[in-house]
Amino acid sequence: MIKRLIVALSLFFSFVSVAQENTASPYSFYGLGEQKFKGTAENRAMGGISTIPDSIHVNIQNPAFYPHLKLTTLSTGATYANYRFKTNDDKEKARRTTLDYLAVGIPMGKFGAGFGLMPYTAVGYKINNIIAPTENNGFPDQIYRYSGTGGLNKAFLGLGYEFAKGFTIGAEFGYYFGKIETMTTLTTSINENNQPTEYGTRELIDSKATGPGMNVGLAYVSKIGKKLSFAASAMYTAQSRISLNNDGQLATIKILSNNQTIVVDEQELGLDDTQVNLPSKISFGASLGQARKWFVGAEVTLLQNNDGGNRGSIVDNVGYKDGVRYAIGGYFIPKYMSFSDYWKKVTYRAGLKYEETGLVINNKSINDATMTLGVGLPLGGTFSNINLGFEYGKKGTRDAGLVEENYFNFTLGLSFNDRWFQKRKYD
Q1: Helices (H), 211-340
Q2: Does residue 121 lie in a domain region?
Q3: Sign of the CA dihedral running 20, 29, 25, 205
Q4: Region of residue 362 (left: phi > 0; alpha: psi -120 to 50; beta: else)
Q5: What backbone torsions phi and psi does residue 70 show, to the nearest 5 degrees?
Q6: Three-state SS for 28?
Q7: Is CB count within 10 Å lower at the N or C end of the chain?
C-alpha cells in the first residue's frame, strides 16, 4: 500500500507540475474556469451523488462519510474526454486526457480521515472571433483570437467523527493553488481569404492563484427493518477568497506566412493584484437500499453565484445568477459473494444529472445535462477494484450565437484497500 501511495503521489505531482489542459470547453473562458467534478469515478458514474455510504470506497465529496470506511483506501482516477462543438455556422472537435484526483482515506474507529489532491477548475479554450466590415464602420475584418490554459488545483485534508449512533460529522480544509495563462491577439485581414496583415497585437496575462477553503458535512445512516438501510446527508462549502498575482505583456507581433509569430516590440503591463470569490454552495441528499446489493439516492446542490469568480475582465454580455444541480443515481450488485460467476460480483452503476450553472451569456442560461453509466470490477481475493465509467452530456446552446457542447467522457478509477495500524496477533 505504501509503495502504491508513493507511485501515485509521484505520478500526480508530475501531472500537476505541468499545466495540463483539463478541458476544451469554450465556457472555461469565463471566471476562474470550468468547475471540475469533486469526487471519485464511483460517485461520478452514479450521477455525481455523494450520499450513499460505502465501507471500501473513499468519499471525497462529504467528509462526514470518512468514519464509514473499514479499510485504508488509496483512490485515483483519470478521464478521456471527447468534445463536439456546434454553432449555427460551424463544427469542431477536441480531445483531452487528464488525471482527476488522488485521495487516501484512513479509518480510525469512530474517526476517519482523508487527504488528497485534485484539479478544481480548468481553463482550456481556443476561440476565434471575426468582426466584419459591416460591424466595424467599413474597416477591414478584425480577427480576435483568444486562448487560455491552466486552472486551480486543490490540496485537502479532512476529518470525520461519529458523535452518536448513526450520526457523523466532518470538516475538510483545503488550499487552492494554480496558474491561469491567457492570450489575446488582434489582426486585420487584407483580402477576401481573411489572410492577416503583417503585424498584429498580442496580450499575454499570467495569474497565479492561491487561497484557503473549507467545507463541513453531516450524515446519518440507519437500518430500516432487517435488510434496508437509509442514509441522509448535508454539506456546506464556504465562500473562498482567492488571491491573484497578475503579470502581463503587450507586444507588437509579426505574422509569418506559416502563421508563426515573431515579437517585434514588447512592454510590461502594470497589472494590480486582485482577489476573487469562489461561490459558496450547500447540498442535501438521501438514499435507500440494501448494503452490498442495491442503493438509489438523490441529491440537490444550491450554488450561490456572485461574480462567478471573475478574474477582473469586463465582458458586457455576461452575467451570473444562483445555480442549482439535481442528481439521481445508484448501484446494483447481482450477487456480492458469488464464487462461480464473476459478473454477478460486479457493481453496476447509473445516474442522471441536470445543472443550471448560473452563467448567463447573451441573456441565455448555460445549462448542463448528463447521463452516466459505470461498472466496478473487483480484483480477485481483495476488496480493491477497478471502476469504469461513461458520461454523455450536453452543455450550452446554439441560440443567440452561442456554442452547443456535446461531450463523451470515459473515466477510469482505481481503488486499493489495505489494513493499517493493526497490532499483530502473532510474531
Answers
A1: none
A2: yes
A3: negative
A4: left
A5: -110, -20
A6: helix
A7: C
Whole-number percent of the chain with pLDDT over 70: 86
CATH code of the domain covering residue 398: 2.40.160.60
CB 403 within 8 A of CB 85: yes
Confidence of residue 187 (pLDDT cuts 50, 70, 90): confident
Q: Is 221 exposed, middle or buried (0-12, 13-18, 19+ CB in 10 A)?
A: buried
Query: What's the CA gap between 418 and 71, in Å, rounded?
Result: 6
Residue with cell 473513499: 58
Distance CA 397, CA 395 (A): 7
What SS3 state is found at 37?
coil
Q: Please list, in sequence order, all residues whose beta carbon lies within 8 angstroms of the beta carbon of residue 422, skipping any fewer than 6 positions away.
A: none
Return the ∠ at Cα 385 (arms to 381 and 391), rounded to 5°. Answer: 155
Closest CA to 415 of 389, 379, 391: 379
- What is d(CA 391, CA 349) in angstroms, rounded to the nearest whole number? 12
- The parent domain of residue 396 ranges over 21-418
For residue 302, give the C-alpha cell: 444550491
Q: What is the mean pLDDT of residues 240-248?
A: 93
Structure-block grid coordinates of residue 240 = 473562498
Task: Report the number of distinct structural domains present in the chain.
Answer: 1
Rounded Cα gap, residues 107 and 114, in angstroms: 9
In 3D space, the residue among 352, 294, 284 whose CA is nearest the CA of residue 47 turns out to be 352
pLDDT(404) > 60: yes
Kindly state the DSSP code that residue 33 receives in the 8-state scheme.
-
Phi-psi region for residue 24, left (φ > 0), alpha (ψ -120 to 50) or beta? Answer: alpha
Cell of 139: 474597416
**Domain contains 424:** no
Q: What is the mean pLDDT of residues 53-78?
A: 94
Nearest to 104 by CA among 174, 8, 186: 8
Q: What is the band of 135 on the pLDDT scale with cuts at 50, 70, 90? A: low
**Cα 224 to Cα 270: distance, rounded to the nearest angstrom:** 64
Q: Is residue 233 a part of any domain in this protein?
A: yes
Burial, 73: exposed, middle or buried (Cβ in 10 Å; 0-12, 13-18, 19+)? buried
14 found inside a domain: no
Residue 115: beta bridge partners? 104, 157
